[in-house]
Design brief:
Length: 146
């Protein structure tokens, strides 16, 4: 299961779009996934200083793409976020250990980090890019449930 960046932000993950910095509407907002070299930037989901895409330092983003066909459903009081499988096109660069989801506002300093997936969460990580496409196939139960 994904580790969410800083517990206080969970209240911002309201599918109706709550108020406050970086409120997230998973269906209408642009949500991106970044392939991360964790040897360059180590995601720390408990660090309140790591809030926005601008906090991903040192060229750690190896590839980045927007999620498509996003859905947010609630069944029996449990929310599920899902999207179409993702293709990072013609990826080269350093070995990548993590995937980070974030709300892309177009400005790195207010593009809210949402969650981080490690090799414990994702089959195939770490991966060493070799110039070919990297395909992320999300679990059939969704990207995450809440």
């Amino acid at each position: 299961m994904a580790d969410f960046f800083v517990e206080f932000r969970k209240e911002q993950f309201d599918p109706g779009g709550s108020s406050g910095h970086g409120a997230v509407d998973f269906v209408s907002d642009v949500i991106h996934c970044a392939l991360i070299d964790a040897n360059t930037w180590n995601p720390d989901t408990t660090n309140t200083a790591q809030q926005d895409k601008a906090d991903i330092t040192g060229g750690a983003i190896i590839a980045d793409a927007a999620l498509a066909s996003k859905t947010w459903t609630i069944v029996g009081g449990v929310g599920k976020f899902d999207a179409a499988d993702l293709t990072f096109t013609s990826v080269s660069g350093a070995e990548s250990e993590d995937l980070v989801l974030y709300k892309n506002t177009g400005t790195a300093s207010d593009s809210l980090l949402i969650c981080n997936f490690t090799s414990a969460d994702v089959t195939g990580l770490p991966i060493t890019p070799n110039g070919t496409d990297i395909i992320v196939t999300w679990n059939t139960s969704g990207i995450f449930t809440w």
